[in-house]
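note to self — DONT lose this again. spent like an hour looking for the file last time. sequence + predicted structure for the chain T wanted, 221 res
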Amino acid sequence: RPLLEAGDTLIDGGNSSYRDSMARARDLSEKGVRFLDVGTSGGIWGLEEGYCMMIGGDPDAFAAVEPVFRTLAPANGFARVGPSGAGHFVKMVHNAIEYVMLEGYAEGFELLEAKEEFALDLEQVARLWGHGSVVRSWLLELAVRAFHEDSGLESLEPYVDDTGEGRWTAIESIENAVPAPALAVALMQRFRSRQPNSFAARFIAAERRQFGGHPVKKRGG
């Protein structure tokens, strides 16, 4: 902020909280600096494929730097979606949808992999679904690449991180009384992936043994 002058435009192209972006816009406006929150999607492929940009902020500021967005984005790949905060809000929901899509694919491919009698080639299935299927997507194309590089994904630990957007969206769903059960489950599954020795799972096993005499597996043997 100390380096900026009246008439400057500051662009935040990260996954910031939309609430923070609204506060920053207000703070900078006191100095005559315009702020654009630009939710950016495209991942590491953005350099080759172009970025999808969801932009919030002052219309005049947007118009002044629109040539930058037009250069970076594919055709129809950028838009001012609303006032300050709107860009990062739309990107937040975008990432929450991504959580749900990834969880859906993950559960489906796990079921395919578990059906050992068919010895399914997961790369083949992912590639097949990419041609005319109703579940085709860029994420499915990336699954083809992942299975090609490691057919059983055995080189990876079953740990899934999150960078906050799913949590923020879940909170928004609660605050606005908008049901988002699929997102909630996808988010909780990410938390579960980080538990190599889940206490909750051990609790359920212990309870089943207590009430039904069901067998349990002892640690270390």
